[in-house]
Amino acid sequence: MRFMGKIRARATWASATSLVLFLAACGGGNREIPIEAYSAQEIFEKGEFELGQGKRSADEAAQLFAEVERLYPYSEWAKRALIMQAYALYEAQEYEASRLSAQRYIDFYPADEDAAYAQYLLALTYYDQIDLVGRDQGLTFQALQSLRTLVEIYPDSEYTQSAILKFDLAFNHLAAKEMEIGRYYLKRNHHTAAINRFRVVVEDFQTTSHTAEALYRLMEAYLSLGLTAEAQTAGAILGYNFQSSEWYEDAYALLQGQGLEPDPVSTGWLRKIYRQMLKGEWL
C-alpha cells in the first residue's frame, strides 16, 4: 500500500536523522532531557525511527506519536502523528487502542487524504483476528461493517479493492462457521438443528464457496427425516447451479439410490429459492 510505503521511506530517512539528533542531545552528559524540550517534528521523527526498528519498538513509537498530540495539539504534526499512532498500535497488535486512534482521525479529518487509510486500518484491527473459524464471530461482523463503510464512503481510494477482497473472505468465513456447526449437528443426527444451519448458508450466503455443499447436506438431512420432496428440491437447485461440481454428482447418486430424481416438488422454503433462481434473483 502506498501509505505503508510512505511510512517505510520516511522511517529510513528518520532512522539516520533522529538518531543523530538524539545522540547529539545526549552528548552533553547523562542528564535526561525532558520530552517537552523537543519540537513536534523532532518527536515525530523519533517516533518514525522507533517504528522503523520493527514491531518490538511499535509501542514506543505509538507513545512518541501520542506525545506530539499532547504537546502540540493544534499543529499539522499532531494530525500526522494521530494516523501514525493508529498504525504503530496496529503493528503492536494493540487492536482496540489502534481502533480508537483511527476513529479519532476519521472523526477529526474525514476529508483528509489519509482518512480512507484510517478506515482501512480500523477494519484491519477486526479482520486480522478472524483467522480461526472457531472463534466468536462478532469480530467478523465488525470487520464486514468496517470494510463496507470504507467501500461506500471512499469508493475511489487505493484501499477499496483490498477492502472488497477482504469483505468477500470475511463473508465466506461466516458461511464456513455455519457449515462447521451444521456438520457437527448432522454427524450427531440432530437433523433439524443441522438443517437450520445449512439453510442460513443457502439463504444468506449464496455467493460463497459453501453453497453447493450446504445444498448437499440439506439433502442428506432431509432424506434422513424422510422428507423426500425437500431433498429432491435441494437436488434440483444444486443441479441447476452446480451441475459440474462433485457435490451434484454425489447428490444425484444419493437420490437415485432411493429411487428419486432432482425435482423442485417441495412447497416449502426451498421451492421459493428455486423460483428466485429461475427469475435470476438467486446467486
TrEMBL record:
Family annotation (InterPro entries): BamD, BamD-like, TPR-like_helical_dom_sf
Ranges for domain Outer membrane lipoprotein BamD-like: 39-234
UniProt-listed GO biological process terms: Gram-negative-bacterium-type cell outer membrane assembly; protein insertion into membrane
Predominant subcellular localization, coarse grouping: membrane
PROSITE patterns: PROKAR_LIPOPROTEIN (PS51257)
SUPFAM superfamilies: TPR-like
Signal peptide range in chain numbering: 1-24
Membrane topology: Lipid-anchor
Pfam families for this protein: YfiO
Localisation per UniProt entry: Cell outer membrane
Gene Ontology terms: cellular component: cell outer membrane
Gene3D superfamilies: Tetratricopeptide repeat domain
This protein's UniProt keywords: Cell outer membrane, Lipoprotein, Membrane, Palmitate, Signal
Subunit structure: Part of the Bam complex.
Family to which the UniProt record says this protein belongs: Belongs to the BamD family.
Role noted for this protein: Part of the outer membrane protein assembly complex, which is involved in assembly and insertion of beta-barrel proteins into the outer membrane.
Protein name: Outer membrane protein assembly factor BamD
